Amino acid sequence: MTFKIFSYIKFLLRSTNQHGVHSPFVFAYMTQCLYIKKKFHRKKSINVLLKTIGYFGFETVSIKNNGAVKELVKQTFPKVGFDEKPLDLLFVDEMDMTSFQKIRSEGKLHNDSLVLIDSIHGNQENLEQWNRLIALPEITVSIDMYYCGLISIRREQVKEHFTIRI
Length: 166
Hints:
Rossmann fold, seven-stranded mixed beta sheet, 21% strand
């Protein structure tokens, strides 16, 4: 419990809103997706997942280890296909460098794929895995939203990390 409190305080001190973002891609994502009033779910990371699918119009999604969330996505976006390659969006409870490298080498991700990782500040180990993951040269955009983290491998994007409040 102490870890989460200190982690949240550090997050608040480092985080910004749309006014501190200078990337057009991330600014548009924040203002036209994350900051819209519509609320799909009470849990923030699932709300981010659903908003992201709708904003980008994703067609292929993979949700690991959470059947209830998969059913919610099916109900909200009936045309979304699951676990087809390549993926537009991958939603996972946790991800380390080895898992990411494996998914990439299997051809599951394309240039515009996003990976949404739940509970990156859930415990010390999750936060350490997140920090090692975003340090990889293949990760060009990372967004720490406290409740979840988003990573992208867009080759045309300059490597940047954002810490934003949602």
